[in-house]
Amino acid sequence: MEVYAEEVNQVETWNELTLVYNSALKEINTRLEILNDEFQHVHQYNPIEHIKSRLKTPESIVKKLKKYGQESTIENMVEYVNDIAGIRIICSFTNDIYRIAEMLSSQSDIKVIEVKDYIKNPKASGYKSYHMLVTIPIFLSDRIVDTMVEIQIRTVAMDFWASLEHKINYKFEGNIPENLQNELIECAHMVSSLDDRMLSINEEVRKFEAAEAEVEEVK
Ligand code: 0O2
What is the 3-state secondary structure (H, E, C) of 128-147? Predict the structure, then answer.
């Protein structure tokens, strides 16, 4: 009977945690939508192409705890697994990534715990993305819970690369054959070059639009 009571307790804790992490995802999603709408209003363009959010599955949480050499307990999951709640923001251009990161981190109740800039310092695999670990307060009926969310911000091209690399990595259980690894690294360079060129084209277009607007004003 005692064991049963303990299990019920664990299930309740798990359900409550899921609710809190889900709320954190909703909260960040809403803030991003507001920023995107405001950007559209002020600058007539959307820096965010789309947003994906997910809660890590229990299987992935257990796998991560094993990797860290930790027992699979709810306490350890909260303490050691930082990406239970994860949001991926996909932008068109590299400069949008830093703009969004700055806009989010300057919100007074969002605390930035850690930043990993894999755009300035790509991983050996070729992986590029901007990672931010933040906490956001979740207001429950009787308390406030500062909840951890991992935010990944990348361009459409970086996302295309990362999705394929993730699939290949899964298929080969982490041991990608050398020829494919080299291909992926080469593609990662192409992604960087594509992102740079698309950004420079976009800047040209924006300059052209600004000049056009000035002419209209004079008229
Ligand atoms: P999933 O299934 O995406 O959630 P750690 O999180 O501490 O175990 P690390 O490397 O210190 O590992 O964390 P980091 O660098 O912040 O990376 C965490 C997440 O970034 C990963 O989550 C991936 O989503 C992504 N990522 C990091 N490196 C790569 C890479 O080389 N290729 C691809 N495709 N994605 C990468 P998970 O938990 O590994 O997986």
Answer: CCEEEEEEEEEECCCCEEEE
